[in-house]
Design a protein that fits this description.
The protein has 155 residues and is an alpha+beta fold. The chain has two domains: 1-98, no CATH class; 100-137, no CATH class. It is built from five helices and four strands, in the order E-H-H-E-E-H-E-H-H. It has helices at 39-42, 49-55, 84-87, 114-134, 148-151, and strands at residues 5-10, 58-63, 70-78, 88-97. Strands 1-2-3-4 form a four-stranded mixed sheet. The protein is globular and about 55 Å long. The relative contact order is 0.17. The model has no long low-confidence stretch (mean pLDDT 82).
Length: 155
């Protein structure tokens, strides 16, 4: 028996060597709220990075989506198998939320003013608060009409 390493927060299986952001799991949009994105369904079992990772001792990885305020759910994936269904160990493993920075960047190369940074931070916090309020369990009551992406965030 050999010990195996776990890569705890990675894009392994979601990106490729020299690849571009071609999938919504690595979308660069900062303001997107996509709790319905599932890393396991986007996982590429034929990625060139998987055999390299296995050769270096990584036997499982938590592949995580990126981009947006709520990026979606990550999944713990095995580094052995033919399909993403076969390689999925645990899903969902985590909900990835990108909380906005609470500090103001006053460096000379910062293009946004302090007021613009505060406005953007407050808007992001408002969007996150609204998204979680819309996804809150209703305790048996009929939930209000919500977009499908918000409803998908409920377990």
């Amino acid at each position: 028996m050999y010990p195996g390493l776990i890569s705890a927060d990675t894009y392994l299986g979601l990106t490729e060597i020299g690849g571009r952001c071609a999938h919504p799991t690595t979308a660069p949009r900062r303001d997107a709220i996509n709790p319905n994105v599932r890393a396991e369904t986007a996982f590429n079992p034929e990625s060139e990075l998987i055999p390299v990772s296995r050769a270096n001792g990584i036997l499982t990885a938590v592949s995580s989506p990126a981009g947006g305020l709520i990026s979606g759910t990550g999944a713990m994936m095995l580094m052995d198998g033919w399909t993403w269904e076969e390689m999925t160990f645990t899903s969902p493993a985590a909900l990835y939320v990108s909380w906005p920075s609470m500090t103001i960047n006053r460096s000379p190369w910062m293009r946004q003013t302090e007021e613009e940074q505060k406005k953007q931070r407050d808007q992001s916090i408002h969007e996150l608060t609204g998204a979680f309020a819309d996804a809150r369990p209703t305790g048996g009551r009929k939930p209000p009409a919500a977009p499908i992406s918000i409803s998908a965030g409920n377990p």
